[in-house]
Amino acid sequence: MKSHAKKPLDALVTAAGQIVLGKENEIRLALACLLARGHLLIEDLPGVGKTTLAHTLARVLGLQYQRIQFTSDLLPADILGVAVFDQDSGRFRFQPGPIFAQLILADEVNRATPKAQSALLEAIEEQQVSVEGETRPLPEPFFVIATQNPASQIGTFALPESQLDRFTMRISLGYPDLHAERELLAGADRRELLHGLSPVFDGAQLQALQTEASRVHAAEALIDYLQALLVFSRQSPHFAHGLSPRAGLSLLHSARAWALMAGRDHVLPEDLQTVLPHVVGHRLQAAEAGGDAQRLVALLQAVPIP
Amino acid sequence: MEHLRQALAWRWRQVERPQLWLLTGLTLALLPHVGRLPWLLVLPAALLLGWRLGFELKLLRLPPRALRWLLVGLAVAATWASYHTLIGRQAGVALLVIMLCLKLMEMDKPRDVAIVIGLSYFVVITVFLFDQSLLMGGYMLLVVTLLTTALTAFSRMNAKVPEHANLRLAATLLAQAAPLALLLFVLFPRIPGPLWHLPSDGGSAGTGLSETMSPGNISRLSDNDAVAFRVRFTGETPPQNRLYWRGLVLTSFDGRTWRNPNEARRGLGATRSFDYTAIGEPVRYTLTLEPHQRRWLFALDMPAGAPPRSTVSADVEIIANNSVKTLRQYTLQSYLDYRLDARHAPRDFAYLRLPPDTAPRARILAQQLRAESRDDADYVQRVLDFIRQQPFYYTRQPPLLLDDPVDEFLFDSRQGFCEHYASAFTVLMRAAGLPARVMTGYLGGENNPLGDYFIVRQSDAHAWSEVWLRGRGWVRVDPTAVIPPERVENRDDLERIDPAYAARTREAPDWAKRLWRKMGYGWDRVNNTWNQWIIGYDKDTQTAFLGRLGLENVDWQRMVSLLFIGLGLVVAVIALQLFRRRPARRDVVGETYARFCRKLARHGLPRKPAEGAQDYSERVIPCRPELAAQIRHITLLYQRLRYARSIPRDGLYHLQQAVRRFRP
Predict the structure, then answer these.
(1) What percent of chain B has pLDDT over 90?
(2) Residue A1 domain-assigned?
(3) Considering the entire predicted model, what is its pTM?
């Protein structure tokens, strides 16, 4: 009954927790998102540790890591790569962009123009890059952590709903608690610690776990519950629009990954409920003007379990 | 020692539980037959059962084919040796029992198991050929439950369900069969008379009166509490001291023993040869006679007719066409007051005959008293006065009378029981030339206040005399009744010779005695109901019962069609329920868990609709920490049953059990 995956995953969370202090739950969610083969959106104020989290995850998971700082003048080629003329061979050679890495941190993704944003999002959706008529696959595993500043900040291009939907989860980190902050202030430099961190996993191990997560059993009764949630979002008058089938799949995959991390080989309604706010929060819009997505999540959480 | 214990425990675990159910059920089914079968068959049957158990314990092997054939031959031979026949009730049952036990020696296929269980059910039926009492019925219900459990256990052998689940299933099956059984019982057409003629090998002497009377015959019955018959009066109940239950007339006397001479004459259509004039209203009663293996029936003087399938003899005995081998119920009217047509003295000298050379002293006394008397009636009175005035005692342990019982009783010992008095009195009558005869039957009866009916027991057996007086015909004279109470040795016997005595003296028994008596009445009432409605449910009762349900004049064709309609209805109801259950059945797990939630909700801890089982248990446990283990167990089982890939073995059963036992 107990899955053997729990122990290494716990070790992973512990290792990451030494760098990102007091954010175990967020680390777990990020990890679940990764195991569900999804992509993560972190929305928070600058300076709360988004970059550190991404970097730490890359480190402990033993993944190649690339960071793309999105700015308003970022061009698609800056992400994907360009063909440059090689004088020695007399031919154009493809210079891969930063997207050709296993873990990408797309920092402040909403500061770039929509053109650059969609270049990134198309690439992660297709799992490949097409430049100059040639198609190049992206590495495996491939995981994007995008961060964005809250929409109220100056100089942002909000991601459209269609693109938000591509992120499996959205989390926010928030300020550390007193204890964690004190440790942060009094302890050693995070960046140095990060360099001293050795990987817990290699890429192959992670892929094996991703496969295992996809095989976690979702019983009829659980699918019933999931469907009840989706139907509710589509029928309730409080929702501007219902949850998409992709949202449903994301929910299921995330819940599976969460169950795996809890050491179970089957999904419980509680798994679904745990990941629910993070999976649907960024996809929901209230029907009334000025409505709050939080309230919609609360409505969904009140749907009876069949 | 420890080693041995472990070895035995290991072997015990090897026994397949269904086999154990079967062996237990079969053994219990055979048990009531043990007293009836000869040891020549009981012992081998027990050995064969033991052999099978040894085989199940992996201690013994089953016999090879040749040996089995030899055993079959021996079994048949033993049955023949015991009964000199292979058919009939006793021999047939014996053969069935021994062959069934032999079948255990080759029971290895499911087919054999089915045969053995089916035959075991049949053994249960054969038990009722001998004993139809309520207790036996209850016992056999238990046996049938065990056998059915064996059946369910064998058919679910691979399902590995817990054993008590098999027992419960069997009980459920039987409970579901009950309405069908009831319907068949009520509506199955009854054939008047026994359904099949029991082979007449069962003439084992029943307790009760016999067709002869000699000293010690009836006193032997005096502490026999067995029920002879039960009577329910419709209308007024006569006083107890008038309840002379007439049985058999004994006419011929050989000096010691009184006999009924009519045995040879029976069946020749001898009917009552004299008339009577009824005075007043008749009493009406229904009598339920326990089987006594004889042909005569009991009635109060003077029966107004004979019940069906019986005749009234010239001596006013009611003789049934067949001996009473099963409970027999009949309704009669009797005139307690009547006047006989007494113009002609009985022509039969049998009523005067005395064996020569017997009772010489009694004859002299008779002559003497007769000479002093004005007429016959005065003579009867003088003889009764003689008994009253001389020191005659009433005792249960009369001294042994050797040469001439009548003379020795009348002049030497003067201690006796009712048969001594009746016998001596009748001899004195005949010696004086008065036609006289001895009557045997029962006197009085015990009123059961719980059911408003009378219980007449063997201990109420009585003997009295009848004398033919000119102008009055046959007159009942009970010489025992004249003995003064102070000469009755045992206080209980006062009631016997005068049933009204207890009522007169109003002795107050202590509470334990009262309670005991009351319990006795209650139990007898249950038995009486059982006899009336189950055993005595014959054609007449059936017609009456159906009439009470509004089905008048149901002939057997209509009864059969009613039966089929009823069966169809029952089956339709069951089918409907099965259909309706199907959709509901899909979510037994959910229902069971919901029951668990309701139990907690009753203690102020309802589950929110959107609350998962895990969250719920974590919320509830801090409130009821003493239930933590149970709640966790139930939650885990529920989660696994509902959400896990592989469903745990017996999971649903365990969940249901856990929820049933869960008492917050």
Answers:
(1) 16
(2) no
(3) 0.49
